[in-house]
Protein 1
Amino acid sequence: MNIRHREEKPLVSIITVNFNQTAVTLDFLDSVRAQHYPHFEVIVVDNGSTEPPGAVLQEHYPEVLYLETGRNLGFSGGNNVGLRAARGAYFLLVNNDTVLTPDMIDTLLQHFQSDPSIGMVCPLIRYHDRPDLIQYAGYTGMNPLTARNKTIGQFDLDRGQYTQPASTWFAHGAAMFTSRGVVEKAGMMPEEYFLYYEELDWSANIREAGYRIDLEPRAIIFHKESLSVGKLSTTKTYYMTRNRILFMRRHAPWWSLLIFLVYFGGVVVPVHTARFLLWGQREHLRAFYRALAWHIKPATTAAEQSGIPRLVL
């Protein structure tokens, strides 16, 4: 492709966050190099790794803009560092534990540009180890009682049942395509969450700004799931519990929040307490109650900055 054609294409900033996964990030960058789209920049944000990959990237991927945070800022914080450094008119925030198909950027950009009401587009996500198995084909809305939603298509064999673009309630954090204009209007990723629920909150902010979120299933990405945090980790127990409540406090109407808190206190707390005790998972039980205490104790720095009032009992 000639230089003129390249310059006619808008610059897309591809942003990914690395945390102690150098080999995984290198695989990701190989798939980025295979993109058919001619005009993009790549930003790798190292989120406080014990062995930062800067030297390796400089040697093998000199085209990459490499940034170090110096400490773990969480999923949102790391991505926001990349957003602040990005020069593109469009942004692709994508997990480093993914493999992009060669025409993914082209397909996402074409769909995004087709309608000014679109605020974010996600590709169809399949599992890397089972490439015929779907991980994400959209999300349902949030249940106002339980603060849970469902992933459409998860664990379904891809038989071509998802071929047409469709609106969805929430983006998937593994791959999110948006524009500078949308981010300027809706804001960057909320950093109060640190891990989990942040893309749901960002999606809600984007929809509240007047945009919609779409799935473009003709764009496909493969995801190496659960590399960052183990499925049974106390970190996951803590943040999934804490942020489930936080999301409702930020986005649920008062009546829905009240119903949710009654349900959570009367059902979720005793059930989880009994389950962790029965299974002998006392570390998980402590993580669960620390997550509850986060909403009751005096405000932490993150909460003070976010302007979220504490629950008063």
Protein 2
Amino acid sequence: MTAQGDDQHGIPPKPRLLDAVRDRIRTKHYSRRTEQSYSHWIKRFILFNQKRHPSEMGAPEVEAFLSSLAVERNVSASTQKQALAAILFLYKEVLAVDLPWLDGITRAKQRVRVPVVLSRLEVERILALMEGTHGLMARLLYGTGMRLMEGVRMRVKDVDFDRREVTVREGKGGKDRVTMLPMSLATPLSNHLERVRALYEGDRAAGLPGVFMPDALERKYPSAGKSWPWFWLFPSASLSSDPTTGIRRRHHTHEQSLQRALKRAVSMAGIGKPATTHTLRHSFATHLLESGYDIRTVQELLGHSDVSTTMIYTHVLNKGGRGVVSPLDRLR
């Protein structure tokens, strides 16, 4: 029976596969980026298998797809892992099928990369070339060790001036953590909030819908989205339509605008390193370790679940050849 016939008899048609995937992701409160990533990889998996429905396939097709990514596409280990997570989510959460352990996968090579780190002087040169909101955001990322999206998604309530703390909400893995508020940013942030407050008041006077609320908070606290504490710390200058609900409201500033501003500053400073917003986070960690802070403290500030992830910065501290002085430098 066709989907149209089902509808005529009062039986709703089955949702399309990707719609069912998105519904399940939103039910489990995964981030929008995870939704986009999972949808992308599930599409790729289906196209790889000549548009066959996943319910008609199983472990052999999954193994062939993932092996193809490693062998033919030469993707990184993390990319292959992401694709696997998406497909396992499809089978377990949407199709209610548990796949056996996938032994036949050709694993992509796990490469250990030493992160790009800026010196303190290089950070100073870059930040000196960044002004306004972008300059404030870049200083906040470097001064707190936050990831790009953690900083972009901050709310007014996440900054505690009295305790000199910043609360990072829904970080990697859905975890919250607390980091320091740099004292040098207290006054600039206070001045920034005065300008943001004027924008907030204008939105309320115009009768605009409140800002996006995470999880089910919009239903639980209908008026919270219109309250000052929940307003974006870095709101967008223009309105946009929510891709999930279609509601036209004020979203946070777009992350790409900060990325472009930093890229321009790096170029203007004449720095020959591929520095990005994430480089500020790497530099934050390295400079703290150089200052003598213990690695467990840095781990907590960065929000790493395992100290082995934080240990990568000790490679940067060795300053070439594991800190050994070259015999060439001992010659007269």
Protein 3
Amino acid sequence: MAISRFLVGGVASALLLTGGLFMWQGHTQIAEEEVLPDPPPALPAIPVAAAGAPKRGPAPPALPAAKEASREERRFNRFDRDRNDKISRVELMSSRTSAFRKLDRDGNNLLTFEEWAAATGERFAGADRDRSGDLTRAEFATTAPKRAAKPKCSC
């Protein structure tokens, strides 16, 4: 009984595979017979200068030298994603993975509202001196992390 079921299953599988192969071949033949659309019309010719025309025009004016941004300006610009000269709370927290790890007190890679609100709310409120809800450049400068002291020698 079990052997006959096995044989019937094998024959049915072979029939399904053969039917699938024929359907696949028929689909590729239909795709090859499709007509391609006409190519786009030719573009107009590029105008050519007359024989007596000068080869080049005057030199373009020199570009003004870009002012070197200070370290603090570069840091501010990294967080000011919409370039409105203000950093919103969302902009401040968008790229702070190391800060995320510090905020995640229980280490489960999930930040609860309580963990987040306790640390970031106090820090943002402390930096937002005018209580506007946004950090200006001067306010943002107060949030810079303290730099570690470098050793005096590398012995």
